[in-house]
Design brief:
The protein is 46% helix and 14% strand. It is α/β, with parallel strands linked by helices and 250 residues long. It has a five-stranded parallel β-sheet. A three-stranded antiparallel β-sheet has the order 6-8-7. Helix 4 runs antiparallel to helix 8 and helix 5 crosses helix 8. The chain is globular, with a radius of gyration of 23 Å. The two termini are 19 Å apart.
Length: 250
């Protein structure tokens, strides 16, 4: 498995490997379901050697004989990294976790962190527009944001219980989906701004911890175990690159 942060990188890495004679396929949520399903099935059958994937390949995935998990860039935090490398060597045989990283990774991760939140003033305006129920096109006509930003804001409000959707007939008698406000949920823009700031700071702290992991000369497994508050973590695992005293393969 080769984990990439973006769908574009999945495609680029898969294409690069194909050009160099390696059987590889991209796997991410931007692909048609049939295409991604076929890529996964071919990988499981052994017809494809390498799957270049995003976090779409999630925690529930289990294939016993994965020999390598390569991270093409830094994952979003050490917990994600630990989950991803845990897919290697489930059959108990030797497997490798290879972490590639460069200065551009931090820019991508910071962009992910900063774009993960919707502007509270925008959220508040959308809620007001939906008091009597509003279709998406009516909301879009009143807010000056891109379609992507509007989709993110609507999803955010639904996930947090401020909005729900229902089907209604319009003036022409046609059925349409409208967004409605859950009157039991009280939205406070200032409180939301403070909550987002706290969560954003947590994400940046996680990134700082990952950068410390890259610099440590101690046991890498011990560092991760301490980060996860695992009990009885050993000081020396004997098998990570630091404990083994250098690269584990040419």
């Amino acid at each position: 498995l080769i984990y990439c942060l973006t769908q574009r990188d999945c495609e680029h890495v898969a294409e690069y490997l194909q050009q160099h004679g390696v059987s590889a396929r991209a796997y991410h949520s931007g692909l048609d379901a049939e295409v991604s399903g076929r890529a996964l099935a071919d990988f499981e059958a052994g017809d494809v050697r390498v799957l270049c994937c995003t976090i779409k390949l999630g925690m529930g995935y289990d294939k016993a004989d994965i020999r390598f998990v390569v991270n093409f860039q830094l994952p979003q935090n050490l917990i994600s990294y630990y989950q991803q490398i845990g897919r290697a060597g489930r059959d108990g045989k030797r497997a490798y976790a290879v972490l590639l990283h460069g200065p551009e990774d931090e820019g991508i991760l910071r962009s992910f962190i900063d774009s993960a939140f919707a502007e509270p003033d925008l959220l508040e305006k959308i809620i007001e527009l939906c008091r009597d129920g509003a279709p998406k096109r009516a909301i879009a006509a009143e807010v000056n944001v891109t379609a992507g930003k509007l989709d993110e804001a609507l999803k955010y409000l639904q996930v947090h219980g401020y909005l729900f959707t229902e089907r209604r007939k319009n003036a022409r008698g046609s059925w349409q989906t409208v967004f409605c406000v859950d009157e039991q949920a009280s939205f406070d823009a200032q409180a939301e701004r403070e909550r987002q700031a706290e969560l954003r700071n947590t994400r940046y702290d996680e990134l700082a911890s990952f950068k410390e992991f890259l610099r440590t000369d101690g046991c890498l497994m011990k560092f991760i175990a301490d980060e996860l508050d695992a009990p009885d973590a050993k000081d020396h695992c004997g098998i990570c690159a630091n404990c083994a005293g250098g690269p584990l393969f040419p």
